[in-house]
Here is the input.
Amino acid sequence: MNASGIARVRACFENAEVIPPLAVPERFQVPSQGSSLGSLPQVPQPTESAPRVTTGQEDVFEERATIIQYDGGLPRLLAEFLARGDTGR
Here is the structure.
């Protein structure tokens, strides 16, 4: 950048105004701990995932995709794409 360009950039910053952040309306603020809403019920979270039963064809597909991924050094999505062509799935 040449000297005139640097001078124009500096002039922009010298004339800049500080804009304060906008105030958030009260209706959009998060209620504090002691709010009048009381305690909200919590949704129970699963502790572990349910076991998934696979069919024989899915097993062949997963195994083929894993082999292509590991031996070919390919990303998982590409390995699954290629395995779909091999297994007819």
Q: What stands out?
A: Residues 55-89 form one domain.
